[in-house]
Recover the amino acids of this structure.
């Protein structure tokens, strides 16, 4: 069975007509609502005491409606945003972080931290007034590097973490690992930087808060999780019943995990609208995205692997410093301390593991969700170790992996981290990609490259991904109208993935209707309620809820059909958009049945919970050609076999994998968010300094979806695909690059592997 027989055709994206003809419903495209404009005055210091703030002049400038500081928020009873103390510090004390305020009070702790909010009739007026605000800062020493931050004598961000260690997590069996290392034939070690990244969606963070006549606020927002945004703002900022806030999300120009966080600017927008009883709008400038959208990654990791003489892994030991930034976002510690480590063993059988992760406070923008959230960092670690081990044992990297993969017979398999993989056929993905990538033909291509003076390298990655983010429940409404439409409401949130298409296709196949009569409604908290879209959960949890909703709808309509057909329910069957009396041609179509009801429709609400997480996996192969004279690296071939379970729509899945690979390539070769080690200034504050991948940087991908190993924890067999490309591609590219350079004596290169760093590594080695 495959996606075609289960769900109908791989239909083209139903949202694209709207999106590519300029009809996208982005916040900045909405009618103005006569909105005032929020401009945020930000800290120019990485670390400073605020001695005083003088807003007198700014307040009297033309077109200025209000100027807010922390004192205003405090007077209105707004407290610092609490975080769940789910981890401990190394000494057993509770997890610690400086109080996260929406506007800084007393101290600023990173560049770009919001200090003063200026609300003007126009953006220009507010920008002018921002110039007139006087903030007297007393600069303090700043620390942005994690090794600096944990060194004795470092500047301290909060007194309840005098060592700047916010929290620590330790997993595994240290004694077993030490014993394994003592008995090992081979030990390899890698120290690596998993650099800080900026999400940089095309559409920056956007919000428009509109007070309505009934006293509510409509909050138009680019949010991956509208329900959570409503909860956050109602509880922390407006301090009103949730019913008084309606969050509306239209289209989103890219989320990448970043738009799952509620940022301070959104909070100020809502606050100002309530306070002034006036619509208020905030659209981040690109520079504000660099400074103050939550960042991703930023780990320093040292890892060691012990192997026996045959290349069987005996144990793995990992020590990671994870940069929390200056404040704790709700998922700030969760991602590096829990979500990441759970996938560290990857697809391999590790008899023993020991992982320590310490979350470190620094004078930098807080980190939070960024596509993959912890999994890319940890798969990078294990895959770098595997390639170093293959080199140490002089084994084909594919063969070393083959010897250590968890076999399909072992499923369900409990990993060294205690996670249970429900299904997976890792060897099948590995062997499949070796064939598709023509692994055996590499030597000829490498020789040909050499005739042109180029160094060709290759790598294979076997990866696993974890989806669901522990949010396993979604609710859908399914409505069939007498007017001939099927309407699905879902609280999962499209941000470019094509969810409208996936859900349309699912419901059309389940009810037997034409996709063109389906409407998918998302992003309005007056209509939908649920966690939203993150953790690659949308198709896996939200799609399962849609399929279940169709079944519930049929059950609910069955007695109505029985009545209409004057037959017993037991004699009625459903199929192809109609109920019929079995063995007869007497039937009633679902739209006619809906029309016959007093409400002219039949509507149900159905909540569905999937059993557990799922484990997308697969194998990627890349070939990278290096020009030793210039240090440029070109990806010449990229081949994957991905197991995302059943694909509801292969076109959508391939699109997700393409984008994920591109994003991972960005980390491997180009992107880095850098702060000056002394001053804490942001060095990469624009696209002039921060390079994003472009289409021309990527080859045409050869993607194969292996749909023979469906997920067992949901009824659709779907595993999720939104982040897997990002998980796999970064180590694949770096390992291929190192493979190209290894003959020169290079066995390590930090990300991003820019032409200059590649050239420098070659110079240092030769
Ligand atoms: S950055 Mo992801 O939504 O686990």
């Amino acid at each position: 069975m495959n996606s075609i027989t289960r769900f109908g055709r791989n239909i083209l994206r139903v949202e694209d007509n709207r999106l590519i003809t300029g009809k996208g419903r982005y916040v900045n495209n909405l009618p103005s609502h006569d909105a005032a404009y929020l401009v945020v005055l930000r800290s120019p210091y990485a670390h400073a005491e605020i001695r005083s703030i003088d807003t007198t002049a700014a307040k009297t400038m033309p077109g200025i409606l209000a100027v807010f500081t922390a004192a205003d928020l405090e007077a209105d009873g707004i407290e610092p945003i609490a975080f769940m103390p789910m981890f401990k510090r190394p000494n057993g004390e509770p997890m610690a972080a400086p109080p996260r305020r929406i506007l800084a009070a007393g101290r600023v702790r990173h560049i770009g931290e919001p200090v003063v909010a200026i609300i003007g009739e126009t953006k220009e007026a507010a920008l002018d007034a921002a110039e007139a605000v006087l903030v007297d800062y007393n600069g303090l020493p700043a620390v942005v590097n994690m090794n600096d931050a944990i060194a004795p004598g470092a500047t301290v961000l909060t007194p309840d973490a005098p060592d700047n260690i916010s929290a620590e997590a330790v997993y595994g069996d240290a004694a077993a690992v030490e014993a394994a290392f003592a008995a090992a034939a081979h030990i390899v070690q890698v120290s690596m930087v998993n650099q800080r990244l900026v999400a940089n969606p095309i559409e920056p963070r956007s919000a428009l808060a509109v007070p309505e006549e009934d006293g509510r606020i409509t909050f138009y927002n680019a949010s991956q999780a509208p329900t959570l945004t409503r909860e956050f703002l109602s509880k922390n900022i407006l301090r009103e019943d949730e019913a008084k806030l309606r969050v509306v999300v239209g289209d989103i120009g890219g989320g990448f995990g970043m738009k799952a966080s509620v940022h301070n600017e959104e909070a100020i927008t809502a606050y100002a609208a309530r306070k002034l009883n006036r619509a208020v709008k905030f659209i981040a400038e690109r520079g504000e995205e660099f400074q103050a959208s939550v960042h991703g990654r930023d780990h320093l990791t040292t890892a060691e692997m012990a192997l026996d003489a045959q290349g069987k892994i005996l144990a793995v030991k990992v020590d990671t410093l994870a940069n929390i930034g200056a404040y704790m976002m709700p998922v700030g510690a969760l991602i590096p301390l829990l979500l990441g480590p759970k996938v560290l063993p990857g697809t391999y059988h590790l008899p023993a593991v020991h992982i320590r992760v310490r979350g470190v406070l620094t004078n930098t923008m807080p980190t939070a969700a960024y596509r993959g959230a912890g999994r890319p960092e940890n798969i990078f670690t294990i895959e770098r170790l595997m390639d170093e081990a293959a080199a140490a044992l002089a084994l084909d990297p594919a063969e070393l992996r083959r010897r250590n993969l968890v076999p399909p017979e072992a499923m369900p398999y409990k990993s060294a981290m205690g996670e249970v993989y429900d299904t997976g056929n890792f060897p099948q993905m590995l062997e499949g990609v070796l064939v598709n990538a023509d692994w055996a033909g590499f030597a000829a291509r490498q020789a040909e490259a050499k005739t042109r003076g180029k160094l060709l390298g290759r790598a294979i990655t076997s990866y696993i991904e974890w989806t669901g983010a522990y949010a396993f429940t979604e609710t859908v409404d399914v409505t069939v109208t007498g007017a001939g439409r099927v309407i699905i409401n879902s609280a999962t949130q499209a941000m470019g993935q094509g969810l409208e298409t996936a859900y349309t296709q699912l419901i059309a196949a389940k009810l037997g209707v034409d996709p063109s009569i389906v409407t998918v409604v998302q992003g309005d908290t007056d209509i939908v309620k649920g966690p939203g879209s993150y953790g690659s959960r949308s198709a896996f949890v939200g799609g399962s809820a849609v399929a279940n909703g169709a079944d519930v709808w049929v059950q609910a309509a069955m007695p109505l059909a029985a009545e209409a057909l004057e037959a017993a329910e037991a004699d009625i069957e459903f199929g192809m958009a109609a109920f019929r009396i079995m063995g007869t041609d007497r039937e009633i179509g679902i739209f006619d049945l809906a029309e016959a009801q007093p409400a002219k429709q039949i509507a149900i609400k159905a909540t569905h919970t999937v059993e557990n997480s799922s484990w997308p996996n697969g194998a990627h192969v890349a070939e990278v050609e290096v020009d030793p004279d210039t240090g440029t690296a070109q990806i010449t071939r990229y081949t994957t076999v991905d197991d995302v379970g059943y694909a509801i729509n292969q076109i959508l899945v391939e699109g997700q994998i393409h984008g994920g690979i591109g994003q991972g390539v960005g980390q491997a070769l180009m992107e880095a968010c850098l702060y000056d080690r002394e001053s804490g200034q942001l060095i990469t504050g624009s696209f002039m300094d921060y390079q994003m991948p472009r289409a021309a940087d990527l080859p045409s991908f050869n993607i194969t979806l292996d749909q023979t190993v469906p997920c067992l924890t949901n009824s659709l067999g779907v595993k999720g695909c939104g982040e897997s490309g990002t998980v796999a591609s970064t180590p694949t590219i770096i390992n291929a690059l190192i493979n190209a350079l290894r003959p020169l004596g290079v066995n390590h290169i930090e990300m991003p592997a820019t032409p200059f760093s590649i050239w420098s590594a070659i110079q240092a080695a030769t």
The pocket of dioxosulfidomolybdenum(VI) ion is lined by residues 257, 260, 369-373, 469, 534-535, 723 (CB under 6 Å). Residues 27-140+200-292 form a domain with the Aldehyde Oxidoreductase; domain 3 fold (CATH 3.90.1170.50).
